[in-house]
C-alpha cells in the first residue's frame, strides 16, 4: 500500500471513530438510565458477537462456543474478586488472566478441531459441546462457583452512565481493531480460507495454524467482554456461558449480517433492546418473534439485514445519480467501507529475480525433479494405482494420457499430497515427501493446478495473486498491500492472458478461460520446481489453447520447470510435450520420448477400448 493509500485509510478510520465517539458521548443526554443499562449490557454482548463474526462470517468457522469463553471471563474475574484479590489493579490482572486462560482454551479447542481434512461440521460439534461442558463444571462447583444460584462479587461502584461509556468504548475499540484486521493482508487470507480452504493448502498456507491462532485471539476478546460484564452485573451466572447464550450469539450475528462487523452489533443491540422493552409484557411471543425473524432471515436474507439495507441504499443512490446524470461510480458503493479502493493495484516482478527452483534444497540439474517408486493407491477393494514408477527432470513436459478412470488425477494427488498414496515413495528434488500434507509438499517445490478452475470467487484477481504469494511473503495483520511481487513465470502468465487489465475484477465474474489463466498464475507464484496440471485447456477456445501452450513451453524450456500435464487433447499434448506417459487401469503402459510414442498402436487401442 502506498503512503497516500495508508493516509486515506487512516483518515477514514479516524473520521469514523470521531463520529462514533461523539455519538457515544452525546447519547446519554437523550437516553434514560434504564436504556443506558440495557445498552451497556448489549454492548458487551456485541463484543462477543463480533468475535463470532470474525470466525464465522469472515473465516467460515461456525462456532457455538464463544459463550463458553465469555463465561470463562465471567467466572475467572468473579472467583478472583470473591475469594482472592481486591482493588483496581488486581481486577485488571484478573481480566488479563481470564484472557490468557481463554486464549489457551481456545487454542486447545482449535487444535482439536482444525486438523487437516476435518469437516466444517466437526468444529461446530466440538464448540457445541463446549458450553455444555462449561455449564456442568460451574454447576458442579457448589458454593465455590455459586452453582445454579450465581456467585455475587464486590464489584466497583460506578454509575450507569459511566458503565455506558466503558462498555461503548470497549465495543468501539474492538470493532475498530477488528476492522483493521479484516482489512489487512491477514483478513484477505481469512476470506480465502472461507471461500476455498483446500486451494489455500495447495498454495502452501498452513490454514490449521492460522485458524488456531484466530480462535485463540477471539477467545481472549470474548473473555475480556465477560470479565467486564461480571463487574457490570455484580453476579456471575452459568447462563452467561451456556449453550443458549452461544446460540443467541450466532442468531444475532446472522440477523444483523455476518461478514460485516457492524451487522452483529446492530443485531445484538437491536434484539436485546427491543427484548427488554417488549419481553416483560410479551415474553413468549417475543421469543417466538425472534425465532421467526431468524428463520425468515436465513431463507430470504441469508446475508442478514445490514447488507440488504446497504444494497438498497446503494441502489437508491445509483438511481439518484442517474437522475442527476452522474456516473454510477460516484454513488455509494455499498455497505462496505473500503478506504483503499481508490489506490491503483500493481503487479511487479519479484525483487529476488531468481526462480525459486534454483533455491530449493536439492533442486539441481543432476537430481531428478520428481521420482515415483512403486507408488500404489487403493480405495478399499478398488485399486486406482498399481506399481507406478516414474522419473521426470527439469525442462521436461511429461504428457500423461489415458481414458477416464485410468488414475491420472489420482497420480497427481499422490505427488501433491503425501497422505494420498497407499504404497511406494515419492521424491521431489531428492527429498521424500513422506506423509506431508499439501502445504508441506509446496515447501519442497510442488504446485498443483486442479481440473476445474479453483480460485477464490469472492476476491479480486489481485487479491487471489496476493494470497498465492502469502506463502513466500509475510502477511500483515494491520495493513493491506495493493502491490504483489510475482516471479517471472507468473508475471508472464498474467501478461499473456490479459489479467493485468483485470486486477480489480472479482474472480467469480471472470470468464472460464480467465479463471484458468488466473489459477495457473497463482500456482506459478509459488515458484515451483514440479508443476502439476490437470486438463489446463478444458473449456478454452483455440486462441486460448495456443496462448497457454506457449506459456507452458516457455516455463519448461526457459525456466527449467518439470511439468506433468494431464490432457485429453492429444494434438495439444503432441505440440508441447517432450515425453509421453500412457496410463491405463492404474498402471503405466507406455513411457518414452514423444517421437517414439506419439503414433503408438497402444494409444489407439486404449482409446477405442481394445487394450486388455
Summarize the structure.
By secondary structure, this protein is α/β, with parallel strands linked by helices.
Describe the structure.
With 612 residues, the protein is α/β, with parallel strands linked by helices. The chain folds into two domains: 32-299, ABC transporter involved in vitamin B12 uptake, BtuC (Orthogonal Bundle); 356-607, P-loop containing nucleotide triphosphate hydrolases (Rossmann fold). 54% of the residues lie in helices and 12% in strands. It contains 22 helices and 14 strands. The chain has helices at 3-26, 33-58, 66-84, 88-113, 120-139, 160-182, 185-195, 197-201, 207-233, 243-256, 262-278, 283-300, 305-323, 408-416, 438-444, 461-469, 488-497, 512-524, 542-558, 570-576, 594-597, 601-607, and strands at 151-152, 235-236, 346-349, 370-379, 382-392, 397-401, 423-428, 431-432, 446-449, 483-486, 530-534, 562-566, 579-584, 587-593. The strands form four sheets. Strands 9-11-12-6-13-14 form a six-stranded mixed beta sheet, with helices on both faces. α2 runs antiparallel to α11, α3 packs parallel to α5 (120-139) and α6 runs antiparallel to α9. The protein is elongated. The relative contact order is 0.11. Keywords: ATP-binding, Cell membrane, Membrane, Nucleotide-binding, Transmembrane, Transmembrane helix, Transport. This is ABC transporter domain-containing protein. One of its GO terms (cellular component) is plasma membrane. The chain crosses the membrane at residues 42-61, 68-85, 91-114, 121-143, 163-182, 214-237, 249-271, 283-301. Involved in beta-(1-->2)glucan export. Transmembrane domains (TMD) form a pore in the inner membrane and the ATP-binding domain (NBD) is responsible for energy generation.
